């Protein structure tokens, strides 16, 4: 039982540490070739159109055809229940995803930068001057992904930090029931309020899943923890 207790303690501590570190980017990320390229946009010829989701009707106003390939550094799933989404009756926005590409995605110092998503924002910071020098603020974008396609909404639910994705669709504004409107950026060189791209997603692919040794360690440690707990509670204890 002493060995089982030791394994239980070590696996519990490993699970906690690995859970905390599971979304850390590795230093060496093999990138797909397309991640070196800037996003591509071309003037859209599509007229505004209506889509329905969750018993609500939205008007989508395409501006550009858009093709983005990049590395996910943070994301936030949206379910329409945050205060601002609920106020705007916006359930079409399924995901906000922060993506990098080009030399920024290829930087071996990218894992020294902290990324996180707010309700509508992608935030980043670092105290490492070398990592900051290798970071191009014009090779990162926060993307509001919208779709009324259940299969696409299901596909984006599987993303993880470190995944490399391709998103094709329309840079578009859209109007929610009641008149609330969300616009879109149409350039990668703007910053601050209004700088996010709103994409009506027509195709979504995970080109290469991110590899996290911490995530694997978490699952292995959790499995060992569960087995040792089972053994602990099912093995008769002998009095000393």
Description:
The chain is built from six helices and ten strands; from the N terminus they run αβββαβαββαβαβββα. The chain folds into two domains: 1-22 and 214-235; 27-211, no CATH class. It has helices spanning 2-21, 83-88, 102-106, 129-133, 150-156, 213-234, and strands spanning 40-43, 49-53, 56-77, 93-100, 114-117, 122-125, 140-146, 164-175, 181-182, 197-208. The strands form two sheets. The protein has a five-stranded mixed beta barrel with strand order 3-4-7-10-8. A two-stranded antiparallel sheet has the order 5-6. The chain is of the alpha+beta class and 240 residues long. The two termini are 12 Å apart. 27% of the residues lie in helices and 33% in strands.
Number of domains: 2
What about the largest sheet? 5 strands, mixed, barrel
Any idea what the radius of gyration is?
22 Å
Overall spatial form: globular
* Helix content percent band: 25-40%
Low-confidence stretches: none
Beta-strand residue percentage: 25-35%
Kindly report how far apart the N and C termini lie. Answer: 12 Å
Q: What is the typical, i.e. mean, pLDDT?
A: 86
Counting helices, strands and paired strands, the structural category is alpha+beta
Care to count the β-strands? Answer: 10
- Please write the string of helix (H) and strand (E) elements: HEEEHEHEEHEHEEEH
**Strand order, largest beta sheet:** 3-4-7-10-8
The number of helical segments is 6
């Amino acid at each position: 039982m002493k060995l089982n207790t030791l394994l239980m303690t070590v696996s519990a501590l490993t699970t906690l540490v690995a859970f905390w570190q599971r979304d850390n980017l590795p230093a060496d990320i093999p990138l797909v070739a397309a991640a070196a390229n800037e996003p591509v946009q071309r003037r859209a010829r599509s007229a505004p159109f209506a889509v329905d989701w969750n018993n609500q009707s939205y008007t989508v106003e395409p501006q550009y055809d858009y093709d983005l390939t990049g590395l996910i550094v943070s994301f936030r799933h949206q379910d329409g229940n945050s205060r601002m989404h609920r106020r705007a009756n916006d359930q079409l926005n399924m995901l906000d995803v922060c993506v990098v590409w080009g030399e920024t995605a290829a930087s071996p110092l990218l894992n020294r930068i902290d990324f996180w998503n707010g309700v509508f924002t992608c935030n980043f910071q670092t105290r490492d001057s070398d990592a900051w020098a290798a970071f191009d603020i014009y090779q990162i974008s926060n993307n509001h992904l919208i779709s009324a396609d259940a299969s696409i909404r299901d596909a984006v639910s599987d993303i993880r930090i470190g995944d490399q994705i391709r998103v094709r669709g329309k840079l578009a504004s859209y109007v929610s029931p009641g008149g609330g409107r969300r616009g879109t950026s149409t350039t990668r060189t703007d910053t601050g309020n209004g700088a996010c791209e709103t994409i009506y997603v027509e195709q979504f692919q995970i080109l290469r899943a991110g590899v996290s040794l911490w995530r694997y360690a978490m699952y292995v440690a959790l499995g060992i923890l569960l087995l040792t707990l089972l053994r602990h509670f099912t093995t008769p204890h002998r009095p000393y």
